[in-house]
Amino acid sequence: MSGREDKPHYLAHRDRQRAKFAASGGDSFADYELLELFLFNSIPRRDVKPIAKDLLKTFGNLGEVCAAPLHRLTEIRGIGEKTALDLKLLHAASVRMGRESVLGRPILSSWTALLDYCRSAMQFEPVEQFRVLFLDRKNRLIADEVLGRGTIDRAPVYPREIIKRALALESTAIILAHNHPSGDPTPSQSDITMTNEVIASAKAMGVVVHDHLIIGRENVVSFKTLGLM
Known about the structure:
Oligomer: single chain
Shape: elongated
Helix content: 40-55%
């Protein structure tokens, strides 16, 4: 015997997967394979394919894996706090890149990018989050702020606080956005009432409300498209 221990089987698999990614990018990879590639760095001495598959089986897709709360991630066998934090970092970086794709650009001509950003930031939030996008006179995004967090079906919203913040930022137009953790983006009557209150307060101060977006798990609903404003 040479005394040399054979390498664990997963090391050769890692080399093959990295070479495949270097040659062809990620389009040819299944979701579990992309997740596996990411986990190679977080979990260096273990076969991570079963872990990647368990994550997807539990949470549904890559977006939901990365958006899952830390305590839920660490419930998966093989996922420690460090790896859970690495996955949360991936989600934060994705949201940040989405924001950079719209920040400083005319929103009304970058609508698809805006919707993509709102979905990445909010679609998997476990509780309601109320976000306001503040625009300048050329409809460029100058700020994006969460002004309310709440329960699974309600977030506190104060129209006067929204307008106060718009005036402080010298914003002349805003877009409202909030998520429905249930996944169904259909506006509720309270959503409609609140939107009308914000529109009335904004109009009195010369601020335009362009739209109110409700972010579901799969779709985004626009109040303007629905004829609700």
